[in-house]
Amino acid sequence: MTHRRRGLTRRQYLATAGASVLVAGLGSRPAFAQAAPIRQGYQTNMWGMPTYYLLKSGLLEKRGVKFEEFAVPSGNLTMQQMVARQVDMGTYAGPSFIIGHDKGSLIAIAVVENVGKTARVMARKDTGITKMEQLRGKKVANQTGSSTGNIFVDQIAKGAGLNKGDYEEIRMDVNNMVAAMAAKTVDAMVTVEPYNAIAEADGLAVTLVDFYSFDKLPVFMAATPEFVEKNPDTVVNYLKAWIDVERDFKQNPSKVADAIYGFYTSKGYKMSKETLQKALARVEVGPGWPSDLKPYMQKHAEILLQEKKIAAIPDWNKAFRTDFMDKARAGA
């Protein structure tokens, strides 16, 4: 099995970010007036695929919600676009959200999924590396600044006795890492699905550790405060559509897999549908607010503060807007 990429470089993504597709609301006229389309950001790794499915499923149109889509390789790029007010909503994990709240007052309207099982540290199979400690002195591909990148450096590597400088960190977008492994320019990679499953299926890499044992990696749907203030009814209807997405993921996974498989094959990725389904099964979709979220986020914020990546610990009562999800559940 081979793996190829066509036209998915970071530069191309950012260059085409403004060339979005406007989708008008279909069906019956909604009972609210949406001031402007949601400029929806999402990442093209597996973390963003529930959002991609949301956009392509017609579920937003059924709720009368209009949108534009902005795709990038990883969520931290969406976060940066939101801080710059180029995008209204986007998905990313806790560390990126905390940074986005610190730099741009971004707020979370829900946790939409857990993806700890999708993120792994993998070593090139022909290196013989089987343990994290063996990465000392090795070249490790890492998307610096991403949530997975921060968790790897600050928690997983440190937990294995590896500090910065003990390994050579190669800055790289996650969607370029399998090609780098195949070219033997890196010894290991910190990446997410479906790239892990592709590397595994191609016989290129072995798993050293997945993130779930360290971090369940809840993924937030975040929004700019300006959009939320101007469009509260849109936010509620948007979250109602997310409840519909959760239902499809649980009750009709083959329909979901077909849509997402079509995305990757259209971009030139060569993988079997079985490989895609294995990768997709590692995503746990469930919009809501976990009861243990604040202590979890407090821990990440303290790490980021210590690393001087943020100026202060967020006020979680301001950072989290739980009321929208409550209204969506009540009216779903």
How many domains, in number, for the residues?
Answer: 2
From the 3D coordinates, which CATH architecture of the largest domain would you assign? Answer: 3-Layer(aba) Sandwich
What is the residue-averaged pLDDT?
A: 89
* CATH classification class of the largest domain: Alpha Beta
The CATH superfamily label of the largest domain reads Periplasmic binding protein-like II
Radius of gyration: 19 Å
Total beta-strand segments: 11
The termini sit apart by 43 Å
Reading the helices and strands in chain order gives: HEHHEHEHEEEHEHEHEEHHHHEHHH
Helix content: 40-55%
Query: Looking at CATH, which topology of the largest domain would you report?
Result: D-Maltodextrin-Binding Protein, domain 2
Number of helices: 15
Sheet with the most strands: spatial strand order? 7-6-8-5-9
Uncertain stretches: 1-30
Shape: globular
- Sheet/helix structural class: alpha/beta
β-sheet strand percentage: 15-25%
| Main sheet specs | 5 strands, mixed
